[in-house]
Amino acid sequence: MFRTPLIFLMLWTQMVKVESTCDTELQNGLFQDLLNMMLKIKGPSSEPSTCNCKKIVIAFTASLSATKSIGSGAVVKFDKVWTNEGKGYDPNSGIFTAPRKGFYQISATTMSPNGKYFYSYLMKNNEKNVGVYTGKGFHTGSANIVLKLKKGDRVYIKHRSNTEEIYSDSDHWSMFSGFLISE
Fold first, then answer.
1. Which residue, of 4, 29, 102, 147, has the fewest CB within 10 Å?
2. pLDDT band at 135 (very low <50, low <70, confident <90, very high)
3. Half-sphere exposure (Cβ direction) of 149: Cα atoms closer than 13 Å
4. Which alpha helices (DSSP H) does the chain contain, by range?
C-alpha cells in the first residue's frame, strides 16, 4: 500500500537531484564548441551571402507528334516543343545550340515502326557521340550522356543511313531533351 507512493517519492527526489546538479557553464561551453565546429564547416566567412544572382535555367524537351520518313544522314526534327527555356532548341532544324558553356545532360529516345529498324546517332558538332538502335518493330532505343559544351556547340539526333521511318504518334514516343547541369 505504501510501496507505490514511496517509489514515486524516490524517483522524484532523483529527478530533482539530477536537475540541481546541472552546470550551466559546462552546457554553455558545449554549445559554444558545437557552434565553433559548425562555423568551421561553413567556412571562414560568417557573413550571409549578398549575392543577388539569378539562377540560370537552360532546358529543352521536344518530341515527334507523328511518324516521319527520315532521309539518309538527315537530322531528326522533333516538332512538338514542350520546354525551351533559354531558346536553345530550334524545331525547324532539330538542333540544340548551347546558349552558354557548361555541362549538359542530353537524352534522346527513338522508336521504330512495326517491322522496321531505326538507326541514329546523338551528335555534337558533326561528331558521333553515342549510337541509338531501336531494334525491329515498335521498340525504343535511348541515349543519355553528359556533355561539356561551349557556347554555340550544336547537339542533335542524326539518322544513320538509308531512308527509314521514325515512329511516333499523339503519345510522343520519340523525344529529345537536355538541360544545363552547371557552368
1. 4
2. confident
3. 31
4. 3-20, 24-42
DSSP state of 3: H
For Cα atoms 92, 130, 77, give the angle at the middle one, nearest 5 degrees: 10
Residue (of 178, 83, 174) closest to 120 by Cα position: 174
Cell of 103: 555541362
Give the C-alpha separation, 44 to 3, whole Å.
60
Contact in structure between 107 and 174 (CB atoms under 8 Å)? no
Sign for the pseudo-dihedral over CA of 88, 89, 94, 96:
positive
- pLDDT tens-digit map of 6-44: 444 454 455 444 444 555 555 566 667 766 766 667 666
